[in-house]
Amino acid sequence: MQQKPILLTILDILSIIGLGVATYFALVFAPTEAVMGNVQRVFYFHVGTAWVGLVGFVLAAAAGIVYLMTKDMRWDRFEAAAVEVSAMFFFITIVLGSIWARPAWNTWWTWDPRLTTAAVTELIYIAYFMLRAGIEDPEKRARFGAVYTLLGGLSAPITFMVIRLFRTIHPVVIGNASAEAQGGFDMSGDMVAAMLVSLAAFTILFIGLMWHRIRMGGLEEKVEQLKLKVSM
Amino acid sequence: MTSSPSFFKAVFAIARKDLATEFRSRELISAMLVFSMLVILIFNFALELNPDARRTVTAGVLWTTFAFAGTLGLNRSMAVEKDRGCMDGLLLAPVDRSAIFFGKAISNLVFMLLVEMIVIPMYAMLYNETRIFQLEFFGVLLLGSIGYIAVGTLLSAMSVQTRTRDVLLPILLFPVAVPVLLASVKASGGIVAGLPFEDYVTPLNLLIVYDVIFLAGSYMSFDFVVEE
Amino acid sequence: MIEVKKLVKRFGLKTILKGLDFSVQPGEFVALLGPNGAGKTTFLRILASLSRPSLGSVKVAGYPLPNESAKVRARLGVVSHLPLLYPDLTAEENLEFYARMYGISNYHVRITEVLKMVGLEPRRRDLVRTFSRGMQQRLSIGRAIIHDPEVALFDEPYTGLDQDASEMLDDVLRSVAAKGRTVVMTSHDLARAEDLATRFDVLSRGVIVASGTKDDFKNSNLLDFYRKALET
């Protein structure tokens, strides 16, 4: 049995501390936003989870390409881990966004480019898992998975651009806000600090979870190997 | 006596074989057509397609119909190859694997366009909607169908090799084809509404971008989908 | 004609072929025997360039696989237990299609020749859909040799055939071999194999466990040879 690496344990502890600190910054340290009040605080976690969700998506597509070039199963495990972890974070992002949207836009959901792209991306993730579930041969599963993440990675940005043609009300946090956006706000220095802390905390958490998931994939394979040995 | 055929000859041979088969059995196109008619019939009652509503939803109704009917055709066309082992027959030929992709894509595209060419006049007749008879509208139809079929042909080659098969194709295809469908709806909707070219040039550009990216992407990854 | 060294094929964690060595001289007719699940079909698919070897080297008709697979494919004819024919095309149209895929110029003469050889010339304009299993299988052999390949691979060609159809297939297979082609055939039917082949190899547990010619068991029979091979 292979020992859990010390660095991973350190990451686990760092993740917990990071989340604690981020929570403190979001709930206590950051000033209350003038117009929306306390509900705006959900924004810090919303941005944090959205960030790692996006990173995971890009990493999965990249890992897919590397897998197709090298045919090394480790990249398949990396890709599957990235999709799984980022699917979870994307889901949290959507839920947090809804909680915020209810008071800010007076609706749980709106067909805004970011929201719709997030929803479509989540559907791509689900399709990815259904595809993998339907294939027995691990090597074929890896190949098909890689091709599909690649297609998903190519289509998501175009989806975003297309839906932008239908109008948007989502606030643009970075860059200049569109006139139509509702619920936008200017961030004070403390708010920026809280956001950065949250981004850092979720990045650490993401790395930790990825590592765990990849390691689990390796262990799963080992279990299969041992099972096969026993049965023979 | 034997030599590898040229790339285009192989592509043409595959497309021609599919068209000859379909010309004889008419299985695929008749299924797509009947299905399209049913979808339009259901839309009529579900959306209360009165003259006012039609102005805005015509493009959406047509593209939804084509997308659904398209998966039927894509599934069937690849299942024919898979079920009798004919895919192995294609793979055994001394041609580049991408020739198989383009051959299948061309015949799929022809089937889809044929269905569109029959459904559109019928829609126009049923709803007295003559604004769809515009050259620009047919241009968008062609561009949208190319993008949809390119990624659909690749994904159908994948889905026939899985346990869930037919069920899986729409699930895989629709989220990835969202841009091509939405851009087509937006562009063709603008044309039906009689908007000036500037108003729908952006979705048209995105449609072309999608077509180029996905034709290239599907062509390059087809090898990985059929090899073992 | 065929040169296989230390061939390993894995599907995921399962190893089907375990360092198999195999070679065939030009003009030999090798019957590949073995129990179900021994890896005969997997092995034939690798020789046919349909499946990639995990390890080891494979050379067919002088070209290495999978690097020169297009050159190998041009010199190879394959018959499997599926006919690989299109039911909605006529016998002639099926052969025409494959002739085009192999880049055969002036194929009309060749098609008539092949149809005569497999005894289907009178039915050339009939849909394959209307053919019996045996006729489909004969046409399938015609399809496989349309480009006059140097090497022919037959995977269980007798599957699903009745006595008469099998006898007709015997004649066709003999005429394929008579042209000095190299043939490898897998079969369950020992009597048929004994009749046709010049050499007998037994594949079991992922390796060739025995190889012999008719002279090697002059005094006994193929069945004894086969049983003995499986025991060791």
Describe the structure.
The complex is a heterotrimer of chains A (232), B (228) and C (232). Chain A is built from six helices and no strands. With 232 residues, chain A is mainly α. In chain A, helix 2 (42-70) packs across helix 5 (138-165) and helix 3 runs antiparallel to helix 4 (113-133). Chain A starts with 5 loop residues before the first helix and ends with a helix. The relative contact order of chain A is 0.17. Chain B is mainly α. Chain B is 83% helix and 0% strand. Chain B has eight helices and no strands. The longest helix of chain B has 33 residues, at 51-83. Chain C is an alpha/beta fold. Chain C has a single domain, classed as P-loop containing nucleotide triphosphate hydrolases (Rossmann fold, 3-Layer(aba) Sandwich). Chain C has helices at 40-47, 69-74, 91-101, 107-117, 133-144, 163-178, 190-196, 222-231; strands at 2-11, 14-24, 29-33, 55-60, 63-65, 76-79, 151-155, 182-186, 199-204, 207-213. Chain C has a six-stranded mixed β-sheet, sandwiched between helices. In chain C, strands 2-1-4-5 form a four-stranded antiparallel β-sheet. In chain C, strand 9 (199-204) and strand 10 (207-213) form a beta hairpin. In chain C, helix 3 (91-101) packs across helix 4 (107-117) and helix 5 runs parallel beside helix 6. The longest helix of chain C has 16 residues, at 163-178. Chain C starts with a strand and ends with a helix. The model of chain C has no long low-confidence stretch (mean pLDDT 86). The interface between A and B is medium-sized, with 31 and 36 residues.
